[in-house]
Every structure is written in C-alpha cells, then in structure tokens.
C-alpha cells in the first residue's frame, strides 16, 4: 500500500464532479528549453558566445517576486490538499497564492 493511498482515495471520494472519460495516453512533451547563455556586461563583446558564463533560471525560491511563508493547517486538510494538487499536477504554492489573492481582493 502506498504512503498516500488513503489521502488520494479520500480526495477522489470528496470530488463532486463525475469522473471524466479516460483519454488515450499521450507521451508528455518536454518543456521548452530556457536559454542557457545570457549576455553579461562583464564579458567583452568580442568574446565568442560559447565562452559566455552560463546563467540558469531558478524557481520561485530564487525569484525576488516571491516570498516564502509558513502556516499551520490541520493534518487531514494538508493531506487532502497535497493529494488533490498531485492529481491535478499543480503546485500547492499556486493553490495557496490563488486563494490568498481572492481573499485579499475580496
């Protein structure tokens, strides 16, 4: 039995919508590659592009437009949220941000 089986089963039971018909499996397509080379003012313009420093994109953790917060929620709610987010392939932080934005805009 998987670690999250009970949480996933419970999340599935609480959904009000009837299940959608199963679609044929489709091979996932990889996300578009982010540019690896970014011009840098410290690099002379005569230098070949392949010798330029590599700068990789970061996630929300390294994005200055995001701030990490912490809060306490009941264990059952936490498990249901994680299970549903996994089923819908969405980040929990995106769910929380959307709910907080709706509450603030209220």
Care to describe what's here?
The structure is a single chain. The protein is mainly α and 106 residues long. It has a domain at 70-106. Helix content is 36%, strand content 0%. The chain is built from 3 helices and no strands. Helix 1 crosses helix 2 (75-88). The longest helix is centred in the last third of the chain and has 14 residues, at 75-88. It is extended and about 55 Å long. The mean pLDDT is 78.
Number of DSSP E strands: 0
Q: List unreliable stretches of 5+ residues.
A: none
Structural class: mainly alpha
| Most strands sheet | none
Strand-residue proportion: under 5%
Q: How do the SSEs run, as a string of H and E?
A: HHH
Fraction of helical residues: 25-40%
- Rg over CA atoms, rounded to whole Å, is 21 Å
Number of helices: 3
Provide a quick synopsis of the model:
The protein is mainly alpha-helical. Helices cover 36% and strands 0% of the residues.
How do the helices and strands line up, and which of them pair or pack?
Blueprint: H1 5-14, H2 75-88, H3 92-105
Helix pairs in contact: 1-2
């Amino acid at each position: 039995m998987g670690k999250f089986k009970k949480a996933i089963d419970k999340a599935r039971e609480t959904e009000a919508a009837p299940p959608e018909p199963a679609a044929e499996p489709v091979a996932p397509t990889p996300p578009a590659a982010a540019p690896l080379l970014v011009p840098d003012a410290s690099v002379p313009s005569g230098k070949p592009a392949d010798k330029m420093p590599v700068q990789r994109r970061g996630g929300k953790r390294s994005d200055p437009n995001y701030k990490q917060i912490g809060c306490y929620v009941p264990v059952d709610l936490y498990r249901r949220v994680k299970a549903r987010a996994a089923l819908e392939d969405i980040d929990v932080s995106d769910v929380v941000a959307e709910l907080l934005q709706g509450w603030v805009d209220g």
